[in-house]
Design a protein that fits this description.
Length: 78
Amino acid sequence: MVLDDGRRIVDVAEAIGVGEGTLGNWARLEKIERGERAGLTRDDRAELAELRKDNARLRMERDLLKRPTAFWVKESGQ
């Protein structure tokens, strides 16, 4: 109603029984989803979270693999 009909947030919030701030946040997020405003879409946020999770896992695996290699280099150098 706010975005499609151009109604004021205050009026729509009162009509549907939500806070103005909540409705304003929803309208802002919907503008991002529609590409009318800069920001991360739901899909972008989900992908970013997945990439961060993968990155943390890969760092952990890398660190685990470094330990035996460092030990082997130390032992073979003596």
